[in-house]
Amino acid sequence: MKLLSVNVGKPRPNPWKGIGATGIDKRPVDGPVAVVVPGPKGTGEVGLVGDRVYDVKHHGGYDQAVYAYAREDLDGWEAEFGRPLANGVFGENLTTLGLDVNGALIGERWRVGPRVVLEVSCARVPCATFQGWLEREGWIRRFTDAAVPGAYLRVIEPGEIRADDPVEIVHRPEHDVTVAFAFRAMTLEPDLLPRLLVADALPREASERIRRRTTA
Question: CA–CA separation, 150 vs 124, rounded Å?
Fold first, then answer.
């Protein structure tokens, strides 16, 4: 298990949400990239130095510091797209190889390289920027139906990472709530929502939303 690439965004216009700019255009970086604990959501800060988000209401902050997507899943989408998909094209910071990102448990921890420790917090939910960036009509629904969303991660121990760094799973919590399961519950299968509450590493706002939906 390793990183194929570490990807940082370049700001570009965002005509799909009307918020001015987006950082979804992420490209592989040569050399080490510093990983830090960002501030709370609302500041635009994320976990990789040199990167940021612009839709500060919905992205960034402690619980969405780093986004990972598996190269194997990108390869699967290539056949459907009919064109190559470069590392970073889904807006992911980490393109991984040999790591079951969607099968990762909420709260699972990865050691990346010699120092950095990241914790799986939640699944990525598609938005209009994602659809517009990929120029795929109906992409939000297609991505949702596929339920291979990739994972957001918190920064537990900062440091530096680079392409080809090994990834080691150093902790797995004692529940069965995977990234893919949480995504399905919060999108197309709301009957599954009560089962998410055993995953105490979910973002607080997500847990509160689940409780409201399940007690209404």
Answer: 6
Other Cβ atoms closer than 10 A to 46: 27
pTM for the predicted model, two decimal places? 0.95
Contact 35, 155 (CB under 8 A): yes
**E strand spans, 38-196:** 66-70, 94-97, 109-112, 116-123, 151-157, 159-161, 167-171
Question: Which DSSP string corresponds to 158-203?
Answer: -EEE-TT-BEEEEE--SS--BHHHHHHHHTT-GGGGGGGGG-TTS-
Beta strand pairing call for 94-97 and 66-70:
parallel
Q: What is the enclosing helix (H) or strand (E) of 35?
A: strand 33-35
Question: Is 15:132 a contact under the CB 8 Å cutoff?
Answer: yes
Identity of the residue numbered 183? F
Taking the chain (216 residues) in runs of 10, the rounded mean pLDDT of each run is: 96 89 96 96 95 91 97 96 96 98 98 98 96 96 98 98 98 97 96 95 91 79
**CB-based burial label for 91 (10 Å; 0-12, 13-18, 19+):** buried
Say which amino acid occupies 177.
Answer: V
Rounded distance between C-alpha atoms, residue 64 and residue 17, angstroms = 19
Element (H, E) at 74: helix 71-81
Q: Which tokens go with 60?
A: 């960034």
